Amino acid sequence: MFALNFQSPHHEQLLIDRQKSVTVRLGDIRETYPENSVVWVTYGKKHGPKKLLYPAIIDKVYVKHISELTSHDLEHQNPGIKTVEELIALFEKI
């Protein structure tokens, strides 16, 4: 089983509250996380201890350029993000 880890404290709360149902990852991750995979959703810093939140199933993997992301993608990634520029700024922080 794979782990799908999140590092942002904001993401931890969104995941616990089940408000986050999409994750935008850099690069093509289809081989790493194939559709219908069971994953452990975890939270923690890279190379540090992780907190197990819950198991999940990856329903669908889409590969898009960042400019192709829709408002629906952004809303399910993080309800507080309204534009692609805001998502880029979040990635730069992380």
* Rg, Å, rounded: 13 Å
Span between termini: 25 Å
User: How do the strands of the widest beta sheet line up side by side?
Assistant: 1-2-3
Report the count of strand segments. 3
* Overall shape: globular
Alpha plus pi helix count: 3
Structural class call reads alpha+beta
Helix content: 25-40%
The oligomeric state of the chains shown is single chain
Largest sheet properties: 3 strands, mixed
Return the string of H and E elements. Answer: EHEEHH
What portion of the residues fall into strands of 2 or more residues? 15-25%
Poorly predicted segments = none
**Average of the residue pLDDT scores:** 89
General description of the model:
With 94 residues, the chain is an alpha+beta fold. The protein has helices spanning 9-16, 71-77, 84-93; strands spanning 2-6, 38-43, 51-57. The model has no long low-confidence stretch (mean pLDDT 89).
Supply the key terms.
alpha+beta; 94 residues; 3-stranded mixed β-sheet; single chain
Could you give a short description of this structure?
The chain has helices at 9-16, 71-77, 84-93, and strands at residues 2-6, 38-43, 51-57. With 94 residues, the chain is of the alpha+beta class.
Write the layout of secondary structure elements.
Elements: E1 2-6, H1 9-16, E2 38-43, E3 51-57, H2 71-77, H3 84-93
Parallel strand pairs: 1-2
Antiparallel strand pairs: 2-3
